[in-house]
Design brief:
This protein is mainly alpha-helical. It is built from four helices and no strands.
Length: 120
């Protein structure tokens, strides 16, 4: 079994060309996304105490802000923005699956609960 030193391993790696280099996200970009998330938190908190007139409007505003914050986390902190289209496809499939699960639970919770006969 051959043993490589750190310098030999580094030299072997230097000769290897990477087909796809990953872009580096700057600290400033992460900081701006962090500020966006904090602003979204503050706006969501403020809107929770406001009466926007029609009842579901408050929920729609809160959900819109939540989706925007989730997209910022997925795109920047999880690195999806700079990944391949296959990654985008899997992220989209995950969201589709989440919507199916939410719709299924919503339907399930509207059903009438029937007690089993003989059980206490």
């Amino acid at each position: 079994m051959a043993s490589y030193s750190g310098a030999a391993a580094a030299a072997a790696h230097d000769g290897h060309k990477h087909v796809h280099e990953h872009p580096v996200t700057s600290v400033g970009t992460y900081f701006l996304v962090y500020l966006f998330l904090l602003a979204g938190l503050a706006i969501t908190y403020a809107v929770a105490f406001l009466d926007l007139g029609y009842g579901p409007i408050n929920n729609a505003v809160a959900m819109t802000i939540a989706v925007a914050k989730a997209m910022a986390v997925i795109l920047y902190f999880m690195g999806v923005r700079f990944n391949t289209r296959v990654t985008w496809l899997w992220v989209g499939a995950g969201f589709l699956w989440l919507l199916i699960l939410i719709a299924t639970v919503g339907d399930y919770m509207t059903r009438h609960w029937v007690r089993a006969v003989g059980w206490q």
